[in-house]
Predict the structure of Polar amino acid transport system substrate-binding protein.
Amino acid sequence: MRLLQTTLRITLITLLLFATAQAGERLRIATGELPPYATEARADKGIALSIVRRAFELAGYQVEYVFMPWNRTLEESRGGRWDGTAYWGYKAEREKDFWLSDNVLTEQWVFLYRQPLKFDWREMADLKPWRVAAIRNYTYTPEFHALVERGVLNVDWTPDDLAALKKLLARRVDVVPIERNVACDLLSHHFKASQTASLRVHPQLMTPNFTTHLMLPRSLAQSAERMAAFNRGLAQLRRSGEYGRLLNQVSCPAGFVPAAG
């Protein structure tokens, strides 16, 4: 009887150890609100965070997301309080403190305006006549930020994208640079179709190469190994049909004309 009990205990311990190993190392990733890509309101935590989570799972890791203001995610992750932060547009200066992953997804940044405004642009300096709503900690493009610093652009600094859209509809600004799917998600959840019917998107993208990335702090010794594993998982995910299904979850509301061309 005692031998049987001992055998059962050993078996149970072995199964528990195996289950723990199978679950993989749990990583805590700091993030913020940017629906539909990153949001605590969704069960999957958003499109981009779903991609990051699945890529890590394919590499043998588990992910826990911790939501907070974006600036705080950057500062606390840099110091190693969190295992990483997701997700961010590419800036060369970020590579000083972080390992940046391969591209998680390419965002479509567009200029949204309101009819009957005759808005057109070919170069960033063409925005000079217009009042532009912008968010301070957004990546945008280096040229955009350079023109703002030189005082060329008339920028109305705004807390977030929702506030920018409200300003646009209230005619307080003329143009809003915004990610296409973010615009569609906000317009469908916060505005009536009658309000959005006058909105148009200029067909020229703000930039054709707005890549986004997981960032792991160089201050943590494990980060380089974890990043290599993540990139392998991401490549595997991209080869599967699941990656495409995760991306194609957003539809624009009636009355909203999406980017074309």
